[in-house]
Structure formats: structure tokens, C-alpha cells
Amino acid sequence: MTTAPTGNPRTYQVRTYGCQMNVHDSERISGLMEQAGYVRAAESDEPDVVVFNTCAVRENADNRLYGNLGHLRPVKDKHPGMQIAVGGCLAQKDRGEIVSRAPWVDVVFGTHNIGSLPALLERARHNSAAEVEILESLEVFPPRCRRAASRRTRDGSRSRWGATTPAPSASSRRCAARRRTAGRARSSPRWRRWSPRACWR
């Protein structure tokens, strides 16, 4: 995992706009930042990293974001090493346009790239260039999830994406066998002697 530089730990602040889901995502962002070695900044201090978690559905969301980014530009000029990251729904929508309108932004990440934020911040510091990473969806599942998709437990049940489907009982297996037999026997006049509905009694 990417960690903050050694010495005095870098501080961060997350500014959340929008719905309750954004509040949940901001809590996740805070956890990732602290795992990477960052420390939450005090209210009276200027943080080393400011993360905007945006929402695209609220009225004037664009104007609010770019207005706040404009206010941070002189602060960043006076604070060498400060970084600004923009994520959330508006980042997913505007993508590289954010860097075009606010070139002092260091990182733009989408709603599916939250886990990459610490690495993107470190890469932007190292390259002295903005990092924009947007994924449309989680297109590739981790290998562990793929193995879980086809794993069977000891009792014969199948575990799929973390959920376990119980193994069929002996009676349900017999019923399924009868339905298959009935389907094959329908060409024979004798199939009417036994009705598949008996399985559901």
C-alpha cells in the first residue's frame, strides 16, 4: 500500500457535497488516507491534502465546486506541496474537464476509483503532473472473487460472490428426476397415469 512520506505525517481534509452515499464514501476515503499514513487535519489548520467528494445532482453543483477550487488556488500557492483531489459523481461526469478549468487540481478520480486515491496522490507528487483516473464500472473482479464463484462447501452447497446457496435436499432431487423422466415419457400414452404435479404436493 502507498504510504505518506516519512517524517511529519501529511494532513488531509475531506469536504463532502451531496447525498448520504457521499457521506459513506467520504468515511471510506478517510479510512484509506489514514491507512496510507495521513492524519486528519484540525479545523483551524491548512491541510496538506484537500479531497472534494462531489455530487452531480444537486443544484449548482458545478458552480459550487469550481468556486471552492478557485478559493483554494491562492492557499495552495502559499502552501508548497499542498494537493487537491476531486472525486465523486461530478468527477465521474466531467473527467478531465476539471483539470482544464482548474489546472491546480492534482488528482481527479471517479466513483469506482476511491481505492486508488493514495496511489494517485503519490504519483502526482512524484510526476509533478495531474493524475486523472476514471473507471466506468468494476469491469474486472479480483481473482479471489472468481474462485469464490465456483467454490463448493463441504456439504455440497455452492458459494457464489459471498452468498451460499444450500445444497438441494434428497426429496427435491427425486422430484427433479421425476420431472425429467416425465418430460421424456410424454411421447408415450402412459405418461398421463402419473402427473408431475404430484411433486409439488
From TrEMBL:
Q: Name one GO cellular component term.
A: cytosol
Q: Give me the segments passing through the membrane.
A: none
Query: Which GO MF terms does the UniProt record name?
Result: 4 iron, 4 sulfur cluster binding; metal ion binding; tRNA-2-methylthio-N(6)-dimethylallyladenosine(37) synthase activity
The alphabetized UniProt keywords are:
4Fe-4S, Iron, Iron-sulfur, Metal-binding, S-adenosyl-L-methionine
Instruction: Give the matching InterPro entries.
Output: Methylthiotransferase_N, Methylthiotransferase_N_sf
Sequence ranges assigned to domain MTTase N-terminal in this UniProt record: 10-126
This one is known as: MTTase N-terminal domain-containing protein
Q: Which organism is it from?
A: Phytohabitans suffuscus
